[in-house]
Amino acid sequence: MTTTIMRTTARVVVPVVLVLSISLFLQGHNLPGGGFIGGVLAVAAFVLIYVAYDLDYLESGVLDRDVEPTTSIFEHRTVVAYRRALLLGLVIVLGSGIAGTLVGEPFLTQDYVHLEGVPIYHEVELASALVFDLGVFLVVVGSLLTIVSVVSSE
Amino acid sequence: MPPDLTVVSTIVALPFVAAALSPLLYRALGERTGYAGALVAAACFGLLTTQVDSHGTVGTPWVPSLDVGVQFTVDGWGLLFALLASGIGVLVFVYSAAYMHGEDGLARYYAALLAFMGSILGVALASDLVLVFLFWELTSLCSFVLIGHYTDDDESRYSARMAMVVTVGGGLCLLAALLLLAVAARGALGGVTFDLTAMLANGEAMRAALRETGLFVPALVLVVVAAAAKSAQVPLHFWLPNAMVAPTPVSAFLHSATMVKVGVYFLGRLRPLLASDEWTLLVATLGLLTMLVGALLAVAATDTKELLAYSTASHLGLMVAGFGFDVVYGGEAGAFHLLNHALFKAPLFLVAGIVAHEAGSRSLEALGGLWRDLPLTAAVAGVAGLSMAGIPPFNGFYSKELLFEAAYEVAHEAGGLAWLYPAVATIASVFTVVYSLKFLAMFVGERRAPVDDVHRPPVALVAPPAVLAAAAAVVSISPQLAVDAIVQSAVEATATGDAHLEVGLPTHLSPPVAMSAVAVLGGFAAYPFTGRLAALVGRGLDTPLPVRPSGWYDWTVTTATSASAQFGPLVHNGVLRTYVSWVAAAGSALALAGFAVAAGLPAIDGLGAPLAVVVVLAVAVVAAVAVITASSHVAGVLTLSILGFMLAIFFILASAPDLALTQLVVETLVLLIFLLVLQRLPSFYSDARRLALARDAGVSVLVGAMAFVAVLLTARGPGADPTAVASYYTEQAVPGGGGTNVVNVILVDFRAFDTLGELLVVTVAALAILVLVTMRTRAEESGTESTEERPADGGDAP
Q1: How far is the C-alpha of B671 from the C-alpha of B575, rounded, in Å?
Q2: What angle in degrees, to the nearest 10, is found between the helix axes of B611-629 and B633-653?
């Protein structure tokens, strides 16, 4: 699938998809979107890179680092990063749940505040659920990408 | 005075804690762990005696939404059973310490025995049906470990499995019965509850609710089957003699005092709730039949423990029959005999153990004249054996007399066929006398040839049965003492009306007294013909399969084994595709069957779909057809995506933007993953077999039909009002969660715990795949010399 058309398309599409993914994630509380949908969309962007180039491209082409010739897929730096994202997501989800218990609320209690008079946006709503949703986002991204990269390298 | 919750829960918890600690105890104490166990049992017994004066229910909530609680009731009936279990427990632990001298696996043995005692105490005191079920199954589990103590022995394993299958199977019937009772409680007590005390307190309303819903007979039958399996009633009595392979202290504990009596105990518990004509017909008949069959089989037994096991079945039948009769005497017979039977059967088992230990034989034909070598044991056996036979004035006589009175009274009132009740009871009692004499015969007469060297048993072996026999003797001499202490309150808890138990030796001739006279005299008269009787019973046992219960047990088990051996490879053949088709087909078939039973076929009145939806769905159908006819993988995947995107558009038209967005994103991802995989697959399909095609078509039609019917039945019409849950979320989304996207607010605010669970599922899936692939890679690296790579599709080419 590593044709020129595919690569050119990917080059244009992937940034758009990633931005869209973040926007969907951020607007999720009030408009269609949210951590899960945003996460899956981000995964789609990564898989597109994967299809057009390969797993090493993220290392060599994007981050401009040398790819270490590792023996197995599990020690591949990118896959390790995916696993870290998965774990970080879980930690954030649990942490946001426990945070509520510190002020005497039940586990996973969420709260929100409205901030008035912010420049440009005028009024901003800050919801603690966004932190929870960030955890969801990271778990989805980390786990799906781990699965896809490990299985497809088989 | 209400009981103290702390004390009661300590009584139940203490044995379990001790069981968990027993490996440590064993390391510290070695074979003296038995004495530690005896201490634990004694502590339970002591704590129980502090609760003798208290009556009532205490507990704390466990699952409040279902009204399930950790709830205990202390009353005479539960106390009697718990006191027996812990009291005999003390003696069994002392006896074990001497009897299990030099055996392996003692840590496991004591742990199981302690947990077993704890479960029995739990059943006795629990008054929440869920808790009762929990402890009930725990007794089955512990007895499985105890019966199968000699894990290297085939017979031991076979018997343990048999006991497990029968008693746990019965336990499942109990579970079903409990659910029926809980359903009835919704009508009678105004809410789902598993609170047995409340059910018993509102017996009239419960019965009415059960009758109204038509659940009375099913619940009754399920309870009786569960109790019959546990208490070895005909035709499920066969596991009890097989359980004799367990070490003797276990037999004494299992068969005399505790586990087999759990069924009887529970029948007594539910008797006030379920007593009716059907109850009498079923329970009394079952009990008397078991009493007769058990007695006959005991007469034919050649092994001391086998004889005692069959006699236990027979006496359990007596108690069950007592509880079956809906007269005052019936409950009295059942409750009093529970005590008496424990007091004479436990020492008899322990005596059998002493004889086997010291004389080295369990065969009744090889043993004789043992009173010279074992005088104290013989005296103990004499008291207990005569009590088992029901010879006045020994304690077994009183409770059997009560059964005779109950049977006579019921027959006198009902007339006709009911006269069979007293007749069968009397005949069974004749055989009871015969086998009791047969057991005692090993102590009298001349020494027989094969046994010559008989040792003196140590004190720790003789003392426990002697204590029990002394207790039996006390009850024999002054039955009113036991009645006043505990039996009267036990009778009150199981009685259907007012009951005042008075026992004593008969002073004038009445029909029940005549029945007793016939039983005792008939027994002594029939004793000389024991051999011929045994031969007759033996000939009956040799009849073909269906008659012999253990025969059909074996047949069922072997058939199930061979059928699953044939069926297994068909389902589980290592090809992922096969698994998917089985799971999909079976799941869909079950769901369809469930819909057919519960709802019937839905009616379709016109389509009523807007034009846009029709167009989108039509495109989806065309795409679906194109998927089937696609000639290459790429074409197939692309057409499948068309189908998926059409669904997304359908969601948009149906005003579900979040769903549509998810569908779009997932569809894109799936398409990309397919593309990734396609690099490794051949570009075109190979030729498919017609049979496989037909099978796949069948499965897909089934799944499609299931999905179609499920949507039709569960989806609400476009004009329907939103449900209460739906409007709650819509109204509360902004004030409660601060978000206008209701779906997202539900995900992260209202039902965040569900989301957390789903995240864990995703994580576990990722980790499972990682582990699977790692293991495969490692196996390939270490397993074979060849570094040849396996085909990417795992050998399952389409």
Answers
A1: 24
A2: 160
Structure tokens, B514: 């005549």
Rounded to whole angstroms, the Cα distance separating A59 from A78 reads 7
Count of CB atoms situated within 10 Å of the CB of B371: 18
Kindly report the average pLDDT of chain B as a whole number. 85
Is the CB of residue A99 less than 8 Å from the CB of residue A128? yes
B745: which chain A residues are within 8 Å (Cβ-Cβ)?
29, 129
Q: Which two tokens stand for residue B713?
A: 């039945």
Cβ–Cβ below 8 Å for B769 and A132 = no
Cα–Cα distances (Å) from B728 to A105, A106, B673, B749, in that order, read 22, 21, 39, 14
- Computed on alpha carbons and rounded to an integer, the radius of gyration of chain B in Å comes to 33
Fill in the DSSP letter of residue B748: I
Six-digit token pair at A90? 């879980």
pTM over 0.95: no
Burial class (CB in 10 A: 0-12, 13-18, 19+), B314: buried
Mutation for testing the A interface, residue in B750, B756, B761, B793 having most A CBs under 10 Å: B756
Residue that is written with structure tokens 């692939």 in the block: B773
CB-closest option in B662, B677, B765 to A143: B765
Largest CA distance in chain B: 103
Q: Do B669 and A151 touch (CB under 8 A)?
A: no
Distance, in Å, from the CA atom of A50 to the CA atom of A148, rounded to the nearest integer, reads 10
| Chain B residues within an 8 Å CB radius of A112 | 737-739
Q: Is A36 close to B747, i.e. CB distance below 8 A?
A: yes
CA B109, B112, B115, B119 torsion-angle sign? negative
Interface test with A, best of B661, B732, B781, B793 (most A CBs within 10 A): B661
Residue range B572-605, pLDDT digits in tens: 787 888 888 889 999 999 999 988 888 766 666 6
Give φ, ψ of A136 to 5 degrees. -60, -45
Instruction: Report the alpha-carbon distance of residue B548 to residue B552 in Å, rounded.
Output: 7
Which residue type occupies A68? E
pLDDT > 80? residue B677: no
DSSP-assigned letter for residue B506 = -
| Spatial separation of the C-alpha atoms in residues B115 and B22, rounded to whole Å | 10
**DSSP SS3 for B70:** strand
Question: What is the rounded CA–CA span in Å between residue B81 and residue B93?
Answer: 18
DSSP letters spanning B558-602: HHHHHHHHHHHHHH-SS-HHHHHHHHHHHHHHHHHHHHHHHT-PP
Distance from CA of A63 to the nearest CA of B (A): 23
- Supply the ipTM of this predicted assembly: 0.88
Give the pLDDT mean for A67-86: 77
Determine how β-strand B56-63 pairs with β-strand A112-118: unpaired
- On the 0-12 / 13-18 / 19+ scale of CB atoms within 10 A, B4 is middle
Q: Where are the alpha helices (DSSP H) in B630-741?
A: 633-653, 657-678, 690-714, 724-732
**In A, which residues are within 8 Å of B770 by CB distance?**
74, 83, 146, 150
pLDDT of A73 reads: 67
Q: Given an 8 Å threshold on Cβ–Cβ distance, is A50 in contact with B738?
A: no
Distance, in Å, from the CA atom of B170 to the CA atom of A129, rounded to the nearest integer, reads 49
Q: Is B145:B112 a contact under the CB 8 Å cutoff? A: yes
Collapse the DSSP code of B67 into the 3-class scheme (helix H, G, I; strand E, B; otherwise coil) and give the result: coil
Q: What is the DSSP string of A88-132?
A: HHHHHHHHHHHHHHHTTPPTT---EEEEEEETTTEEEEEETHHHH
Which residues lie closer than 8 Å to B94 by C-beta, 6 or more apart? B34, B35, B38, B460, B463, B464
* Chain B positions in Cβ-Cβ contact with residue A97 (cut-off 8 Å): 752, 756
pLDDT of residue B798: 35
Element (H, E) at B135: helix B129-147
Instruction: Quote the CA–CA distance of A90 and A95 in Å, as a whole number.
Output: 8
